[in-house]
């Protein structure tokens, strides 16, 4: 199905054909592995691209009870060269180093779909990728890599996809490809609004849960919840300047809903600090601070949290 993008203009017909799509997942961590399993279950040709070049095959089982194990080729150049869709699920800070070396192998028609926490990573490499159709996505599905071979789908969620560039805007048909694999999917031409809202939630939850080394639910305790609200007040000022229409009260209420819905979970930044890994802070709070500076807004609380996480990273790494 290498000619997928040649069919862009006929994509509505392509759909009815219901043909398998050649997909490579770059970065099969928890989220990437979850999508790999569901996309393969739906009949697509899925291969993986990992950091290490050693394994040529990887089997993954989705949820411990699921007997069906999914087998994928790994780091197979031929699959990469012929992929219609490169689904990039590495962390924001890995995007540049993971993707740039692969670009010479790709057809210009390969669709690039990015899914990660935070903002700014794609802008940084825009000049290298703008000849591809580029899409962005954000999801609320919960996934946990229980072992190198087992993925747990910890919570059903919703995924929003939308275009990053003009040719990405012709790829709405991907909504159906993904919908048949892991629903529900929403096509949103103004994806930036969804990304900003996710970033706002991450600014409020991730640094605090990493600094206090606590589960998300602990942020509902009155003393820490005060900090959550102060973060939201600053974030809201930036959102206003970015023309994101979201009342502060709605933002706080959404953050508290996420805290309660994920109360038993550890945030991704909490886990990164716990496992002594680099965090996504530069693309979450760091991105917010950059935008605040451009708009001349003072954000002392977010600055303090940013510096605390950078300090933690320095001590841990
Ligand atoms: O990064 C995370 O962990 C998640 O995006 C969220 C929403 C904070 C829930 O843990």
UniProtKB/TrEMBL annotation:
Annotated metabolic or biological route of this protein: Cofactor biosynthesis; (R)-pantothenate biosynthesis; (R)-pantoate from 3-methyl-2-oxobutanoate: step 2/2
Keywords attached to this entry: NADP, Oxidoreductase, Pantothenate biosynthesis
SUPFAM superfamilies to which the protein is assigned, alphabetical: 6-phosphogluconate dehydrogenase C-terminal domain-like (SSF48179), NAD(P)-binding Rossmann-fold domains (SSF51735)
Keyword Kinase assigned: no
Highest rank taxon of the organism: Bacteria
Protein's name according to its UniProt entry: 2-dehydropantoate 2-reductase
Organism annotation: Aliivibrio sifiae
GO process annotations (BP): pantothenate biosynthetic process
Domain Ketopantoate reductase C-terminal: residue ranges: 194-313
The reaction(s) this protein catalyses: (R)-pantoate + NADP(+) = 2-dehydropantoate + NADPH + H(+)
Cellular component aspect of the GO annotation: cytoplasm
MF (Gene Ontology): 2-dehydropantoate 2-reductase activity; NADP binding
Keyword Phosphoprotein: no
Entry EC no(s): 1.1.1.169
Domain Ketopantoate reductase N-terminal residues, every copy: 23-165
Pfam families: ApbA, ApbA_C
Similarity section: Belongs to the ketopantoate reductase family.
Function: Catalyzes the NADPH-dependent reduction of ketopantoate into pantoic acid.
